[in-house]
């Protein structure tokens, strides 16, 4: 069945909105401000991990029919554990609570009275926020229409209005880059893209798009892959344009504002300078819409997956469970959530990247028996050591690891994975030679 252009656009908007949440608003302006005159290179690196890899992830997972099927290429145990880890980390364990807390802590609490009880206001806001998430997810049949035709266009309109106002009404000044972005802005931008969590989320959203296309009448695998690619590219183009706009705003204010701890504060200052008191409402609307669509998409897809794995609990019950758990963790505070997110992402993001790349090459490496195992487990080992090393310093182990090229920049897993890929090819050649000899 051929998909109509209208439905294709709606699905593309939906995919964009699933990706575009808390981190997607916060990190590009901060990257722009901190990289200053080196923004171009840092944005290129950022776009690889925040746009290109997520889009490829959606396509690969759509092709394999789900993350668990892709992860099974490694082995059954890895497929179960890694899939659960991904769903928990981007879901109720980290991703959803972060997206729920960001709008309040970054766009509402700064405007409250000094004597206000932030805990109570946080509970009130997140209660309303998660009730809306619950309501939208309990009616999954209407989800695509509500997100693709209402929420996402509204969000994009607000961002474009903000950017145009900024271009014509703001006195801009670009500063020199901070030390992190002076020597290797591309690599630092690449790592900054981890914080969006989109490559990890893509391993989840690929199945969402596949199921959505199937519900719209596209049943054949070729058709699903074709429209997933088109929707992914379209969503990727929108993401790229939005990231560039946000990064430009950060760069152009690097000589105006200084030492801002996050991108939300930069956006808040810009809003205030452009729109005065009205800027607060503008900021709340943008943050809430962005984070709401992401939370809805994550809750829906994770509930769908868990209801198939744990069949005794229905989809709607999983929606309720995930919403309640996310609400409780969300109210622990954004700082606590972010402190956990960095080491977790440093450990599992490289594994997600390697899995996506191997999935893309699957047609050509099927005969290499040990490739998935060696590449994935070696990447997991090095990336986990790096994450732990960043937290506690592993002493002499850290000194040994430092000999691995690019380890100190967080890319030690790259050379190790390449070496393991070569070893797997060599093992395959030796085993095949023995078979021929016998």
Structural account:
The protein is mainly alpha-helical. The protein folds into two domains: 5-360, Amino acid/polyamine transporter I (Up-down Bundle); 366-438, no CATH class. Helix content is 78%, strand content 0%. It is built from 20 helices and no strands. Helix 3 crosses helix 11 and helix 13 packs antiparallel against helix 14. It starts with a helix and ends with a helix.
CATH architecture of the largest domain: Up-down Bundle
**What structural class do the secondary elements suggest?**
mainly alpha
Per the principal axes of the C-alpha atoms, what is the gross shape? globular
Order of helices and strands: HHHHHHHHHHHHHHHHHHHH
- Structural Rg: 22 Å
How many helices in DSSP terms?
Answer: 20
Unreliable spans: none
Overall mean pLDDT? 85
Number of strands: 0
Keywords:
438 residues; mainly alpha; 2 domains; 20 helices
In short:
The protein is mainly alpha-helical.
Helices, strands, pairings?
Elements: H1 5-19, H2 22-35, H3 39-64, H4 67-71, H5 76-90, H6 95-107, H7 118-137, H8 143-169, H9 180-183, H10 185-192, H11 198-215, H12 221-252, H13 263-275, H14 278-309, H15 315-330, H16 334-360, H17 362-365, H18 371-392, H19 396-401, H20 412-437
Helix pairs in contact: 1-8, 1-11, 1-12, 1-14, 2-3, 2-12, 2-13, 3-10, 3-11, 3-12, 3-16, 6-7, 6-14, 6-15, 7-14, 7-15, 8-12, 8-14, 11-12, 11-14, 13-14, 14-15, 16-18, 18-20
């Amino acid at each position: 069945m051929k998909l109509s252009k209208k439905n294709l656009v709606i699905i593309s908007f939906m995919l964009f909105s699933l990706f575009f949440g808390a981190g997607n608003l916060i990190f590009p302006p901060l990257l722009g401000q901190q990289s200053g005159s080196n923004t171009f290179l840092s944005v290129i690196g950022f776009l690889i991990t925040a746009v290109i890899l997520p889009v490829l992830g959606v396509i690969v997972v759509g092709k394999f029919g789900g993350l668990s099927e892709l992860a099974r290429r490694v082995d059954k145990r890895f497929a179960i554990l890694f899939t659960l880890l991904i769903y928990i980390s981007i879901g109720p364990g980290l991703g959803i609570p972060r997206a729920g807390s960001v709008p309040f802590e970054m766009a509402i609490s700064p405007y409250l009275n000094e004597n206000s009880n932030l805990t109570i206001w946080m509970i009130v806001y997140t209660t309303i926020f998660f009730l809306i998430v619950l309501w939208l997810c309990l009616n999954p049949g209407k989800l695509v229409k509500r997100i693709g035709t209402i929420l996402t266009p509204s969000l994009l309109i607000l961002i474009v209005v903000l950017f145009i106002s900024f271009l014509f009404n703001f006195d801009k000044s670009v500063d020199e880059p901070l030390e992190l972005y002076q020597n290797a802005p591309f690599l630092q931008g690449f790592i900054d893209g981890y914080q969006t969590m989109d490559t990890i989320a893509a391993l989840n959203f690929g199945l969402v798009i596949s199921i959505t296309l199937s519900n719209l009448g596209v049943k054949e695998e070729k058709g699903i892959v074709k429209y997933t690619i088109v929707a992914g590219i379209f969503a990727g183009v929108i993401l790229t344009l939005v990231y560039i706009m946000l990064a430009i705003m950060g760069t152009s204010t690097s000589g105006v504002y200084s030492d801002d701890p996050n991108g939300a504060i930069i956006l808040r200052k810009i809003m205030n300078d452009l729109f005065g008191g009205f800027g607060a409402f503008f900021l709340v609307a943008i943050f809430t819409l962005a984070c709401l669509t992401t939370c809805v998409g994550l809750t829906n897809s994770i509930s769908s997956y868990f209801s198939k794995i744990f069949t005794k609990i229905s989809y709607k019950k999983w929606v309720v469970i995930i919403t309640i758990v996310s609400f409780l963790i969300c109210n622990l505070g954004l700082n606590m959530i972010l402190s956990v997110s960095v080491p977790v992402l440093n450990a599992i993001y490289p594994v997600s990247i390697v899995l996506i790349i191997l999935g893309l090459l699957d047609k050509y490496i099927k005969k290499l028996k040990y490739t998935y195992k060696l590449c994935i487990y070696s990447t997991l080992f090095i990336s986990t050591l790096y994450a732990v090393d960043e937290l506690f310093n592993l002493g002499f182990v850290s000194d040994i690891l430092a000999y691995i090229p690019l380890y100190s920049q967080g890319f030690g897993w790259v050379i190790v994975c390449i070496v393991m890929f070569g070893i797997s090819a060599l093992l395959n050649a030796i085993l095949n030679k023995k078979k021929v000899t016998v």
